[in-house]
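ARCHIVE CARD
Drawer: 12
Card no.: 0347
Subject: one protein chain, sequence and derived structure
Cross-reference: see card 0346
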Amino acid sequence: MKTRKGARAGQYLALLAYLVFLAFPFLWLISTAFKPARELASLHPTWIPRSPTLANFRQAFDEQPLLHAALNSLLAALGAAVVAVLIATPMAYVMARHRTPLAKAATGWVVVSQAFPFVLVIIPLFLVLKNLRLIDSLLGLIMVYVVWALPFALWMLVGYVRAVPAELEEAAAVDGAGRARTLLSVTAPLLAPGIVATALFAFISAWNEFFFALVLLKAPEKQTLPVVLTHFIGAEGVADLGPLAAAATLATLPSLVVFAIIQKRITGGMLAGAVKS
């Protein structure tokens, strides 16, 4: 019993250490965002600002079009998340329910595609978008985000579909429900948490993505928020630390808000619709 309690205490300590490790950069970022210039230059930094100020936020908004860049990021992230889920959901259902050689080959493609670095595909991707006249276009960027998020989204949804017992669909068919009715009334409610989790992954990936946006978007009015954040770094590589931290804090908040809103749907309702009424 003592050994079991000691092991449980060790697990909690390890989890606490991991949470502190994850939270440290964000907490330090918030602290830096509210520090005046003289505290940022101090040789003895503190966790809590001695003289908190909003000057960094005002300066950040004055120097760069953060709201417009955030709107561009939002459009790109939402578009990529919605389209990726709409494409991946029926594909995942077919791959999970019909385990043919073609489905196995598609699964292998999903795994292999994640091994390719961005640099390998950026030149052919740039040429393709140039021929389609989609360079410097949010639509072109959304297409890139969809293609890049689709393999992992498909892999996630295949796992969720396989977790739904096929016997439930068979029981619905025995009760006289057609294929469409079965998918909408039985399968869809059970897949909802997985679909939401997949959409969240696609949204956050697109919201935080930097490399593709940097290469494909040149006009200042089309640039996304991660690209605009680099404008706080001068030509000599010296960062305007206070405004940069303030802008980065604002750029981080949407991902946290989205996760806080839908996290109940991710963890709850896994058995919704499994009981016949």
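Annotation on reverse: The chain is about 75% helix and 0% strand. Residues 268-277 have pLDDT under 50 and may be disordered.
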